[in-house]
């Protein structure tokens, strides 16, 4: 059934809800059968699966959630796929979902982009507005991306919204300072789609083979570095044959070495942290000892 027809069905449904103000005011009208989703534009098979999913998730606001998704322009098939990917959506409140959708619109995610983002990464609907704002603020204030660039990052890499903020900032700093890459190129290469470990591995492999060089203060290098897009936005096979000029076996051995180096770094950091804590404890004990000695001396 087309989206236009679904919207007409939704208007009928919203009118039906208006005759039951108590249920609407309380915000919960659970599906009692497969008839409700079927009347909202879902096929009988889709309605059955939707009803089963709502029952398993104990969703009390499913009609209002489906209303928000249908009015967003998503068709029943797309909505069903979203629910299959992320069953937690059944447990949302329609009002909360609508608030989050409206907030994403305010951040510049227009029609088309917003639907693709939600279809690709439904978990974005579970994230509070506060969390989205925190990530957006970090990208703007700490990483100095423009508002438009932040919108592009959220559209292309919505997973960034769940990433640890310290790790997110470190990934930016690594690309900026170690690789000499600027913000527009990061956005173009979809930097934040890749884990930090993969970014470091691909970069360091090129660096140790003499195929990548950190630019100096003037942004100059003695060799021509590959673009970040050529490093990240290609398959491993293409990366090895066209960028690194190496074999899969060489890269596999290097991965193991990198993993071992990373483990050693983490152990050293933990040891340093423990030593600092011990020194702090010793200093505290020394200060307490001095205070106690002075106190006794004054008493005499």
What does this structure look like?
Belongs to the mTERF family. With 300 residues, this protein is an all-alpha fold. It has a domain at 1-98. Helices cover 68% and strands 0% of the residues. It is built from 16 helices and no strands. The longest helix is centred in the last third of the chain and has 52 residues, at 248-299. Residues 13-29 and 289-300 have low confidence and may be disordered.
Structural Rg: 27 Å
Number of helices: 16
Per DSSP E runs of 2 or more residues, the count of β-strands stands at 0
| N- to C-terminal distance | 94 Å
Mean pLDDT: 85
Helix content: 55-70%
Structural class of the secondary structure composition? Answer: mainly alpha
Which residue ranges are poorly predicted, with pLDDT under 50 across at least 5 consecutive positions? 13-29, 289-300
Strand fraction band? Answer: under 5%
State the shape. Answer: elongated
């Amino acid at each position: 059934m087309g989206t236009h027809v679904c919207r007409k069905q939704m208007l009928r449904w919203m009118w039906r809800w208006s005759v039951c103000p108590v249920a609407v005011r309380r915000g919960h009208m659970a599906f009692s059968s497969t008839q409700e989703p079927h009347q909202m534009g879902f096929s009988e098979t889709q309605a059955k699966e939707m009803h089963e999913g709502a029952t398993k998730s104990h969703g009390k606001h499913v009609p209002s959630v489906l209303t928000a998704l249908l009015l967003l322009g998503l068709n029943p098939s797309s909505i069903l796929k979203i629910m299959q990917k992320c069953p937690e959506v059944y447990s949302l409140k329609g009002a909360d979902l609508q608030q989050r959708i409206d907030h994403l619109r305010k951040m510049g995610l227009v029609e088309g982009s917003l639907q693709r983002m939600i279809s690709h990464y439904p978990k974005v609907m579970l994230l509070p507005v506060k969390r989205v704002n925190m990530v957006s603020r970090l990208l703007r204030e700490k990483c100095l991306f423009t508002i438009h660039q932040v919108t592009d990052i959220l559209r292309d890499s919505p997973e960034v919204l769940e990433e640890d903020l310290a790790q997110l900032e470190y990934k930016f700093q690594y690309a900026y300072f170690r690789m000499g890459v600027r913000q527009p190129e990061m956005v173009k290469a979809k930097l934040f789609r890749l884990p930090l470990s993969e970014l470091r591995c691909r970069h360091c492999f090129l660096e140790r083979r003499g195929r990548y060089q950190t630019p100096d203060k003037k942004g100059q290098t003695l060799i021509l570095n590959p673009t970040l897009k050529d490093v990240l936005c290609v398959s491993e096979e293409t990366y090895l044959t066209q960028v690194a000029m190496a074999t899969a076996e060489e890269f596999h051995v290097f991965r193991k070495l990198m993993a071992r180096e990373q483990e050693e770094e983490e152990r050293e950091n933990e040891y340093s942290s423990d030593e600092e804590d011990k020194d702090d404890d010793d200093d505290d004990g020394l200060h307490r000892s001095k205070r106690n000695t002075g106190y006794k001396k004054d008493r005499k």
